[in-house]
Specification:
The complex is a heterodimer of chains A (801) and B (228). With 801 residues, chain A is of the alpha/beta class. Chain A is 30% helix and 17% strand. Chain A contains 29 helices and 33 strands. With 228 residues, chain B is an alpha+beta fold. Chain B has a single domain (4-225), classed as 2-Layer Sandwich (Alpha-Beta Plaits), CATH 3.30.70.20. In chain B, 21% of the residues lie in helices and 18% in strands. Chain B has seven helices and ten strands. At the A-B interface, α2, α3, α4, β3 and α5 of A face α1, α2, β2, α5 and α6 of B.
Chain lengths: 801, 228
């Protein structure tokens, strides 16, 4: 056996079986052979033998996960300076000692062979792969030079910062950085996922933030789309809560999953209700129709604490339609049944169950590609209206409002001329403009904005742990758009598809190597979890937050004033000093939390924090808006009608029956992400790839789920390799014939199609692309008002490859 | 001597596969890679298996997480020609990797298909070897031997050593396998089936309790509680 081969294998396993037997026979007392003997399991000799070996130094380090938006507390077993196992932190209120498979596999991220060791600069043409590794000083000097020049030339606004999921105060830090720099262009990924749920919450309940569902105490839980038990933002809280709802208390609750596909939530729910994709809003309104018609709604709550249920006359004497009459006139059972495809009896039964098994909650999905059918804003409002209809606002088992710890004010600073001038410019993604007044940021508008150079061309782009080339292929437009930007810097852990096209890559440390904070979400009460390095830096990487602080310090001017901290740890500790935290305790427990949620009595002073708190234009009168007065104020123009302010249903374009399209592309493609994927890491996680597709037992590749009837009609069988083609592009996938899917719908998992330069396994190629990216089939556009991405359903056809 | 057993409540199991990943990280099962995985050779001691019945829209899917059943009457040990696999005094079925000759008789005999054969030496990219569990019992198995779930026997050894070091009697509750510890729905229970007061013993007598392929007389020590 040559040296090279030996190097690539763990001690002990490079032995062939024959060697192994030979050594095993003679080696009992020899120190080196202890390794070879170790595999003896269960033999009495094993424990005796291990005592001869010096006990390694072993600790359990508490930190906080960052692989999904939950932020669970983790206990990491560290032996001799190496992290070897992850467990849930038993004290942590979110996950209570358990953790999901992503956290389990997170060590494959920490020690990933795909991680970048040093900062690097592109020497040749972009994408040529002609990289030069440089020191941090050199890389940062180059970035600071470029950014500083822009500011000097009065072009600060031509820098955009595009970021992925952020935790704790990272988002505020990014915004403050860009404000002090002088650019309005901070673009996050939320328009692909949860932005619209926040908007619906704001427009109806007047709260800026995602709703919290108290499933521990709910009797009836209805998920309109989404994947509550697999990829929801607070999945671990929901898993624990649904288990408790079933077996932890005397009265068992019921969980209903509405989705065109039988996903894990549907499988594990008490009932699966298949509907046509993108028609959740119609179903919610149909249920409202039955509830109102049968007078099953909470009459007292609706009368005293809501607005716009009945028709009303405004101050100018104009008559407006209310929610009740709209629903009674427009959303009859027959019509809703025709739209959704669910039988009338089912809709009526669900409505009855929902209204009579209180506390009941209707859940708006916040996962990627779930409320993304072009009618998402009013769909989300319709779903949330059901909660108000049955009086589930801020009651046990209802919808709660998340509290956050008090934070110290950011210190004042004087924006310099460059900052003032830059901030007066419009955003390039159009968020907040007349077309998208509700949007905070619109990720999917990025390629078109860059290509058109409207409202102005960008001179620099900073990417922070995000990969728009994978998220928004846009028929090649994203790659072409990057060509238009003279300077691109990517803060990334691996050389993902976008980082590969950058000029400078600053390698980002993983969450297991950095200090950080994390707000507890999904439980209602305030809390903060501590993230800390469990091992020393594995690579010459830095915390992305520290990189921003270092760049700010070097840029000087208002940036230095606005961000005077040397590192992120000092920053978040100082900001959190407004909350009386015992840091010693936070460090030993891994978190701090209030642990008690105080419900507000409707109409009490505390109620002001539950309904109407964050309203800007509508009155803060403690009334839940069926008729959104906030939206009426935003839209106030001559063309606005009542329907614009009320939850209603618009048929997604793809569902309209255009005959020639339906013939050419007969299937509707939906995509979902899976529990075996994370949005926060752009590399390959081998263990998760080997658990990838549970229902169809698929590993390491993409599959397309198709109904048995459709498969029979097309002559397709399980395991066939097919092309899935839309009018834009085609991708390959393996057929999985799956009875749990709407007959003309096909499903493909999101997040596939990543490039890897590592040889995974014995006969694997040196580099490959894992699976195919379904977003390549969709021209992702933006919904008016909300700016939410329109991702699906997309029309496709399928044929054998 | 305790008789170790497990109960899995399918009503609280959400098929999240956290057990599958926890098992891999705890027991150092190797990365199969795409080409071996497609041949069904990914070694996952604790896989979740899907069973689909019915036709759209009345589809009933059952997800069964499947560790080794640690049968009281194990068919695998009876066929081993070299007595490499055996049931130890606490009821855990283990493999002596030094004795195993790789004939795979046990793999065929096991009705639950929980035994995996190492067709090749285990492989990881160099960097990933850093996270391997250093416990001697789970050192990567060589090519040519059969491996399987051991109820994380290394944890039993550590728990006994810890109790001894702290000068107290070892309790059944000191020990739990990695899959039980990480179960997100708190669906798994573990303990001494012979102790009538233990939770597992009580749950194993629940009217919801059943075992897989009970009719074969293998007497599995993994019980399931049925859904709903």
């Amino acid at each position: 056996m040559d040296n090279h081969q030996a190097e690539n294998q763990t001690p002990g396993n490079h032995l062939t079986r024959r060697d192994f037997v030979k050594i095993g026979a003679t080696a009992a007392a020899i120190g080196a052979a202890a390794m070879a003997l170790k595999p003896t399991v269960g033999a009495p000799a094993a424990s005796a033998l291990s005592e001869q070996v010096t006990r390694p130094e072993e600790t359990l380090v508490k930190t906080t996960c960052a692989l999904c938006p939950s932020g669970c507390g983790l206990d990491v077993r560290v032996v001799n300076g190496r992290a070897v196992k992850v467990e849930g932190n038993p004290l942590h209120p979110l996950n209570q000692g358990v953790c999901c498979l992503r956290a389990q596999a997170s060590l494959e991220i920490l020690y990933s062979p795909e991680r970048l060791a040093h900062p690097r600069i592109q020497m040749g043409r972009r994408g040529s792969g002609d990289w030069k590794e440089v020191s941090w000083d050199e890389a940062l000097a180059l970035v600071v030079q470029k950014l500083s020049d822009l500011r000097k030339n009065g072009q600060a606004h031509t820098l955009a910062l595009v970021h992925g999921e952020t935790r704790g105060q990272m988002r505020s830090l990014i915004h403050r950085f860009m404000q002090a720099y002088g650019s309005p262009n901070v673009i996050g990924r939320e328009s692909l996922a949860d932005q619209v749920a926040r908007q619906a919450m704001f427009l109806t309940q007047g709260i800026n933030g995602l709703p919290v569902y108290d499933l521990n105490n709910a009797s009836y839980v209805m998920c309109f789309g989404g994947n509550l038990l697999e990829t929801n933002r607070n999945v671990i809280v929901h898993l624990g809560a649904v288990a408790f709802m079933r077996r932890g208390r005397p009265q068992r609750g019921k969980l209903v999953s509405v989705h065109p596909r039988l996903n894990l939530t549907g499988i594990k729910a008490d009932e699966w209700v298949p509907v046509r994709p993108g028609t959740y809003g119609a179903l919610a309104l149909g249920m409202a129709n039955v509830i109102i018609n049968s007078k099953l709604y909470d009459e007292k709550f609706v009368r005293d604490f809501t607005f716009g249920f009945e028709d009303f006359t405004d101050v100018n004497g104009n008559l407006h339609q209310g929610f009740k009459n709209l629903v009674l006139e427009q959303y009859t059972l027959e019509r809703v049944s025709k739209i959704t495809g669910a039988p009338t009896e089912t809709i009526a039964r669900l409505a009855g169950e929902f209204a009579t098994n209180r506390p009941a909650v209707a859940i708006m999905p916040n996962e990627i590609a779930e409320l993304n059918s072009g009618n998402s804003l009013y769909t989300a409002m319709a779903i949330h209206a059901l909660n108000a209809l049955v009086g589930s606002i801020d009651v046990q088992g209802g919808v709660l409002v998340q509290r956050f710890p008090d934070l110290e004010q950011w210190p004042d600073y004087t924006p310099d001329d460059a900052a003032v001038q830059g901030l007066s410019q419009p955003r390039i993604d159009g968020a907040g403009s007349a077309q998208y007044p509700l949007a905070i940021s619109i990720y999917q508008n990025l390629p078109d904005a860059l290509l058109s150079g409207e409202p102005y061309p960008l001179n620099a782009l900073m990417l922070l742990n995000t990969n728009p080339v994978l998220d928004l292929p846009q028929n090649g437009r994203m790659v072409a758009a990057l060509e238009k930007v003279p300077f691109i810097v990517s803060i990334a852990s691996t050389l993902d598809a976008t980082a590969a096209l950058a000029d400078v890559v600053l390698p980002s440390a993983t969450f297991l190597e950095v200090w950080g904070d994390d707000f507890m979400e999904g439980v209602g009460y305030a809390g903060v979890s501590l993230r800390r390095p469990v091992v020393e830096l594995v690579q010459d990487n830095r915390n992305p937050a520290d990189i921003l602080l270092q760049v700010a310090a070097q840029l000087g001017g208002s940036l230095e004033q606005a961000l005077p901290w040397s590192d992120y740890q000092t920053l978040f500790r100082q900001r959190l000093s407004a909350t009386p935290l015992d840091w010693e305790k936070v460090e030993s427990n891994g978190f701090w939390a209030e642990m008690v949620y105080f419900y507000a009595q409707p109409g009490s002073p505390a109620w002001a924090n539950i309904v109407g708190r964050d309203r800007l234009n509508a009155p803060k009168d403690g009334r839940f808006d069926f008729y959104s007065r906030e939206l009426a104020a935003i839209l106030s123009n001559d063309t606005m009608n009542d329907l614009d302010c009320l939850p209603h249903f618009v048929l997604p374009e793809a569902l309209e029956e255009v005959v020639h399209e339906a013939q050419e592309y007969p299937f509707l493609l939906i995509s979902q992400s899976l529990i075996t994927q994370t949005q926060s890491w752009q590399g390959t996680i081998p263990t998760l790839q080997e658990c990838l597709g549970l229902q169809g037992n698929v590993k390491w590749r993409s599959w397309v789920e198709i109904n048995p009837k459709a498969a029979e009609a097309l002559g397709l069988h399980d395991g066939d390799v097919v092309w899935v083609e839309s009018h834009i592009d085609r991708i390959q996938a393996t057929v999985r014939v799956y009875p749990g899917i709407w007959p003309n719908v096909v499903f493909m998992p999101l997040g596939m199609g990543r490039h890897t330069m590592t040889k995974w396994g014995r006969n694997a190629p040196e580099q490959m692309i894992v699976g195919s990216n379904p977003n390549r089939l969709v021209d992702i556009r933006s919904e008016p008002l909300s700016g939410q991405a329109i991702i699906g359903p997309a029309r496709v056809k399928i044929y054998k490859a | 001597m305790p008789r170790w057993g497990m109960v899995i409540d399918l009503d609280k199991c959400f098929a999240c596969q956290s057990c599958t990943a926890a098992c891999r990280m705890e027991n150092n099962t190797p990365i199969a890679g795409p080409d071996q995985a497609i041949l069904g050779r990914a070694i996952l001691w604790n896989e979740v298996l899907p069973f689909l019945e019915g036709e759209y829209p009345l589809v009933h899917a059952t997800m069964i997480p499947r560790p080794c059943m640690h049968c009281d009457n194990p068919p695998c040990t009876a066929v081993c020609p070299v007595r490499a696999t055996y049931k130890n005094e606490e009821g855990i079925v283990v493999v002596d990797y030094q004795r195993c000759i790789g004939c795979r008789m046990c793999t065929v005999a096991c009705p639950y298909a929980i035994r995996y054969f190492n067709w090749f030496p285990p492989e990881w990219p160099q960097a990933l070897k850093q996270h391997l569990n250093p416990d001697p019992e789970v050192a990567p198995r060589p090519k040519g031997v059969v491996e399987k779930c051991t109820f994380c026997i290394q944890r039993l050894h550590r728990a006994r050593e810890k109790a001894a070091a702290e000068g107290r009697t070892f309790q059944a509750t000191d020990y739990m396998p990695a899959c039980v510890q990480t179960c997100t729905g708190h669906a798994r229970y573990f303990g001494d089936l012979d102790d009538p007061n233990s939770l597992v013993s009580k749950l194993s007598h629940s009217p919801r309790a059943f075992r897989l392929l009970e009719e074969l007389g293998t007497e599995p020590k993994v019980y399931y509680l049925k859904q709903g």
